[in-house]
Design brief:
The protein has about 400 residues and is an alpha/beta fold. Helices cover about 35% and strands about 15% of the residues.
């Protein structure tokens, strides 16, 4: 990862076809665009690739979350459960629609702990968002069973796991809908961009209309202009250049995942020699997108010692317990309720605090993350990076 490592003639050709039309907007200009509708084509290709019925392209993975939640009817006063190890976008989208994020522990998969999920459900829970973090599946069958028992829809945040599968089924297709990110550091990238997928036609149409100012798109499905509006919307439209990039990158996605799995296996073989090391639980090794390689040490002190050796030898790993983007105790703006809004929204309403977060609320996750080290896996592994990383891991094994 990421997909820009394999940019080539395919991406250039797709983009040039857009430039030849002069039309960057995904809708309208039928005579001028000469039948070229890259975003529409990308949506159809992505739906076919993942094995679902509908796909709605949007401007980012963050937008995909907000569009999906809105299309599902989630709003002010509702609770949405997600996990405490995720990118900030997951809970930003929840806050932005007026709902309250509720956080669960993660388990050895580094994804949502189903046992903790069951404890966090209330009569206000209107959606559950498991995140297939670092490219590998959450315990989606257990999560879905709990959700179904309570009649709660599941939205799979698959931002980091495009191309990943669980027993042959694409991640993002187990729940009511799935969302993806195609930003600049994802395995397949359009620079910025995202996608919502679903088998539910009504939900897809809600996404389609909401992401384009509420236009119902019924006069000319896939076109725009002259329609009515059933509800208010916003602007999260993907443009044709992104759709063109997406088509080229999607065609390479499986090959990129294959390459990442190969490179991950190389690192894992050497890391296995480190005293006391264990590995993240991967529910389906063959379906892993292998965007990251995570390994655990017996305690935080040993993890720090190992990582210092890795850093001293030019191959330091990520410790997400120290990371300010992805782990709950480090989200000071969430924990402290920081906002630009003069009345304190979304943390306050009518002069009262809506919810308060305890930084020590997820002790099991904190203990696990403190002793977990992670490498991002490249699509193309240079000889220098390979030898440097393997040598560093070998030295760490001497501790």
């Amino acid at each position: 990862m990421p997909g820009f490592e394999v940019f080539g003639e395919e991406e250039k050709q797709q983009v040039l076809e857009v430039f030849d039309t002069g039309v960057l907007f995904r809708y309208e200009f039928g005579d001028q665009r000469k039948g070229v509708y890259k975003v529409r084509e990308f949506e159809k290709a992505f739906a076919t690739y993942t094995g679902t019925r509908h796909a709605q392209a949007v401007t980012s993975g963050t937008a995909a979350l907000k569009v999906a939640l809105t299309a599902m009817g989630v709003g002010i006063g509702d609770e949405v459960i997600t996990q405490g190890f995720t990118f900030v976008a997951t809970w930003e989208a929840i806050l932005d629609i007026g709902a309250q994020p509720v956080f669960t522990e993660v388990d050895q998969t580094l994804n949502m702990d189903p046992d903790d999920l069951a404890k966090k459900i209330t009569d206000k829970t209107k959606a559950i968002i498991p995140v297939h973090m670092l490219g590998a599946p959450a315990r989606i069958h257990e999560i879905k069973a709990i959700a179904d028992k309570h009649g709660i829809p599941v939205l799979e945040d698959t931002a980091q796991a495009a191309g990943a599968r669980l027993n042959g089924q694409h991640l993002g297709t187990f729940g009511t809908c799935g969302t993806f990110s195609f930003d600049s550091v994802k395995t397949m990238t359009t620079g910025e961009g995202g996608m919502v997928i679903t088998a539910d036609e009504t939900l897809w149409r809600n996404c389609s209309e909401y992401h384009d100012h509420g236009h119902d798109h019924t006069v000319n499905p896939g076109a725009r202009g002259g329609e009515g509006r059933s509800f208010v919307g916003f602007n999260y439209r993907m443009m044709e250049l992104q759709g063109a990039m997406g088509l080229a990158q999607l065609a390479k996605l499986d090959a990129m995942c294959d390459s990442q799995r190969e490179h991950k296996a190389i690192f894992k073989e050497t890391a296995a020699k480190i005293a006391g090391v264990t590995f993240r639980e991967i529910l389906d090794e063959k379906g892993d997108s292998a965007t990251f390689f995570a390994f655990m040490l017996p305690d935080s002190e040993q993890a720090a010692k190992v990582n210092q050796v890795l850093r001293d030898n030019g191959a330091g790993a990520i410790n997400f317990a120290e990371n300010t983007w992805h782990f709950y105790p480090q989200w000071e703006h969430l924990l402290e309720g920081k906002t630009l809004c003069h009345n304190g929204w979304p943390f306050e309403a009518h002069g009262k605090r809506r919810f308060i977060y305890d930084p020590e609320m997820l002790p099991a996750s904190s203990e696990l993350m403190s002793r977990t080290l992670v490498y991002q896996i490249p699509v193309k592994l240079s000889d220098t990076q390979r030898e440097t990383t393997l040598a560093a891991l070998a030295k760490a094994a001497l501790l």
